[in-house]
Task: inverse folding
């Protein structure tokens, strides 16, 4: 086929786009169909949403996933327990240390091993640091989706200080692979505690900055107040968890109510909730939680007990037969691993309960009857990572 | 930054002392066991307490479900498992939501209990020659609460007011695995059931839209079934349990 004229070129592009069935707007008598994504900045990966419109109003919205499906549940069945942590790091790549913890805790439950107190302390500190690294990006990114470009640069700038601290302990900025059955790979390096206090001070200042810059902004409030409201009973029935659930007024936090293996009971801290359930509430709760995470880390840094960082575990790990489910309050919400063991070197079956999968399943419900620009702000406020949906 | 309250410092001190006690060199394994049993007295009383809570809730479930409850399992401090038949699947979920205030839908999935014909461990004989072992001959071993069939549905619901998560299992028919959809009770089950359908081939009746969720529409087979081979592993075996890289300059 030879393309000679401009009209030929346009026709060619249109036919290519129609073949790929992406970003095509189709107008019929019943209304218009709009493809959002798979390459949209609001989607944190490759999520595609087919939206049926009546004028500016959404009649139906349907998320299409699977562009990033990597089959972790199958892959875990052919890896030994220590090898699995390398894989599951990649589920939520913004707060990757937090992914390792529930799996390791589930394996420890089955082996009836408990990490020494020092390891539990450091685990909790790193867990909260990955929460800051994760949610910090949300705070900047949410403003970008609404049209303010500056906050995301602040977020990336200050997030780097937290990532540096994670890197100094684990050796990995993004994928630490640091948690081990029975403890941790290494101890803290010298001078780390003081440096972390400095990074926390920066994060507190960042939170104050975001509060002034974004939360009090009139445009931000107009775009988020009363938009995408989710009542608490709907949120529970859809399995929403984490800040999304607490923003709907449900006072439930796994760290406080069903804590396993981490030392949140050793700290004075508060669970933040908001009664509104709209996009604004979700932003507000996450902002407070970032501050609370700084507070938790600050208290834990002063009370780290001395002692070993590894319990006694055999060199080749065989997990006794049994089933265990351990969930932790990850940055995105409840993340749990259901591990079925038959006494082998490899797990028999691992079910990964990831937070974003359930958080996203409410999208068809919450996007119904909203206007097109609100799709983006609602998606941004629900806050998902595609690796966490597709696994 | 806020000052650290005194009681936290005390707790940390206690934890430090505990760690030091654990750290002391052990002369023989017998003494190690003796030392542990003396230090974990508090933990044992805690286990007993949580256990009672799960047992009480199990009592309530037993009186509510009567003969529908096939078996149950309480792992102290870890959770509560119950098993029902697949025809009581939706009824059980309704009961748990209405009577035990299990408002929170956690997740739903399937377990394929058939031993994998391709070997369970990394470097067994079966991995090298899968044809030599007939999967039908290997007995199926079930986990908690037992089982009768190859596929088991499993769902976890959580009661925030009671503070307990309940794992519900149901046996599915081998040839035609199907159950009623939970969507009328928990709308969040929608995507979980779609995932279970494409990964295990379980049909959910009255589900409005059972298309594939991750895989392409024309994908053949159900990948998480044990008899579905992981092709990359068939082509290139995993290095093995002890995976040691050769350092530069070292001989193999």
Result:
């Amino acid at each position: 086929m030879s393309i000679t004229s401009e009209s030929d070129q346009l026709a060619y592009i249109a036919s290519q786009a129609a073949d790929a069935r992406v970003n095509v707007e189709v107008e019929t008598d019943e209304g218009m169909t709009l493809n959002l994504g798979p390459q949209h900045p609001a989607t944190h990966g490759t999520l595609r949403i087919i939206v049926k419109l009546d004028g500016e109003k959404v009649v139906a919205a349907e998320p299409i996933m699977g562009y990033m499906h990597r089959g972790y549940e199958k892959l875990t069945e052919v890896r030994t327990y220590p090898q699995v942590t390398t894989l599951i790091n990649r589920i939520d790549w913004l707060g990757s240390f937090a992914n390792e913890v529930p799996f390791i805790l589930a394996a420890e439950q089955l082996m009836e091993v408990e990490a020494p107190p020092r390891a539990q302390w450091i685990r909790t500190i790193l867990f909260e640091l990955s929460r800051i690294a994760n949610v910090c990006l949300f705070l900047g990114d949410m403003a970008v989706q609404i049209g303010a470009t500056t906050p995301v640069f602040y977020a990336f700038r200050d997030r780097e200080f937290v990532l540096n601290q994670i890197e100094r302990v684990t050796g990995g900025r993004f994928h630490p692979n640091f948690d081990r059955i029975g403890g941790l790979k290494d101890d803290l390096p010298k001078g780390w505690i003081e440096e972390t206090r400095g990074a926390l001070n920066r994060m507190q200042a960042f939170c104050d900055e975001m509060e002034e810059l974004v939360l009090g902004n009139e445009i931000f409030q107009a775009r988020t107040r009363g938009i995408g409201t989710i009542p608490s009973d709907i949120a529970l029935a859809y399995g929403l968890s984490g800040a999304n659930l607490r923003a709907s007024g449900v006072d439930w936090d796994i760290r406080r109510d069903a804590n396993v293996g981490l030392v949140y009971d050793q700290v004075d801290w508060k669970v933040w909730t908001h009664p509104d359930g709209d996009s604004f509430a979700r932003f507000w709760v996450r902002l407070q939680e970032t501050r609370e995470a700084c507070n938790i880390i600050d208290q834990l840094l002063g009370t780290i007990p001395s002692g070993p960082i590894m319990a006694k575990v055999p060199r080749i790990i065989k997990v006794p037969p049994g089933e265990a489910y351990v969930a932790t309050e990850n940055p995105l919400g409840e993340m749990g691993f259901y591990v079925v063991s038959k006494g082998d070197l490899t797990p028999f079956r691992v079910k990964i309960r990831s937070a974003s999968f359930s958080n996203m399943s409410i999208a068809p419900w919450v996007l119904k009857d909203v206007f097109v620009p609100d799709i983006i702000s609602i998606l941004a406020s629900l806050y998902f990572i595609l690796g966490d949906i597709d696994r | 930054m806020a000052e650290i309250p005194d009681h936290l410092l005390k707790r940390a001190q206690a934890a430090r002392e505990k760690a030091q006690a654990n750290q002391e060199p052990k002369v023989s394994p017998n003494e190690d066991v003796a030392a542990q049993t003396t230090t974990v007295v508090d933990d044992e009383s805690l286990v007993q307490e949580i256990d009672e809570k799960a047992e009480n809730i199990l009592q309530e479930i037993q009186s509510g479900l009567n003969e529908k409850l096939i078996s149950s399992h309480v792992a102290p401090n870890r959770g509560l498992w119950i098993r029902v038949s697949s025809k009581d699947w939706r009824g059980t979920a309704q009961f748990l939501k209405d009577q035990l205030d299990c408002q929170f839908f956690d997740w739903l999935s399937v377990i394929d209990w058939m031993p994998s014909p391709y070997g369970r461990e990394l470097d067994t004989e079966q991995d090298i020659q899968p044809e030599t072992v007939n999967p039908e001959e290997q007995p199926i071993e079930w986990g908690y609460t037992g089982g009768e069939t190859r596929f088991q549905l499993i769902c976890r619901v959580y009661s925030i007011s009671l503070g307990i998560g309940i794992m519900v299992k149901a046996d599915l028919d081998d040839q035609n695995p199907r159950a009623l959809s939970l969507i009328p009770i928990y709308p969040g089950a929608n995507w979980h059931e779609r995932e279970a359908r494409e990964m295990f081939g379980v049909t959910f009746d009255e589900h409005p839209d059972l298309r594939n969720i991750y895989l392409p529409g024309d994908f053949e087979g159900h990948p998480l079934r044990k008899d579905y081979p992981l092709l990359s592993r068939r082509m290139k075996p995993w290095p093995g349990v002890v995976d040691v890289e050769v350092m530069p300059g070292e001989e193999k």
Notes: Confidence is low (pLDDT under 50) at residues 25-42, 123-128 of chain B. The CA atoms of residues 204 and 243 of chain B lie 43 Å apart.
